[in-house]
Amino acid sequence: CVVAASDLDRLAAVGVVLIVLGFLTWKKQTVAFLHRYHYKKVKEEEVPEYTKQMGIGQIIIGIAFCLTALLRLLSMRTVSWVVFIVGLAAGLVFILKAQFKHNGSLF
User: Whole-model pTM?
Assistant: First the structure.
């Protein structure tokens, strides 16, 4: 099965966007990319740790998207799915951990 270049471009583009958003969330402590209900209960003094964990989670997911695109380009479909699922799960663990620790709930 051949993967269209446009599919790989989209996967990589989503990955790059998530990496950039994660970096901005983490390093610039920007919550503007998150829904208000995700951070409304976060205490002001916890914002740096919250944004760090959220940003790292976004970056991990972004890297998973980029690696998936690269592996699919190299015709390594099975490995690409494993990388994607593991990366997505790891990123979500960071995000959910931060969410529950600092916001108290998902919403």
Answer: 0.88
User: How far is it, in rounded angstroms, from Cα 13 to Cα 7?
Assistant: 10
pLDDT digits (tens, 9 = 90+) for 27-86: 999 888 777 767 778 888 988 999 999 999 999 999 999 999 999 989 898 999 999 999
Distance CA 49, CA 38 (A): 14
Dig out the tokens for 26 from the structure: 């983490």
Helix (H, G, I), strand (E, B) or coil at 33: coil
Contact 64, 22 (CB under 8 A): no
Residue type, 70: L
**Dihedral angle, C-alpha 26, 13, 92, 21, nearest 10 °:** 20
C-alpha angle 24-10-29 in degrees, rounded to nearest 5: 10
What is the DSSP secondary structure assignment for residue 7, as one 8-state letter?
H
| Both structure tokens of 97 | 């951990």
Q: How far apart are CA 61 and CA 59, in angstroms?
A: 5
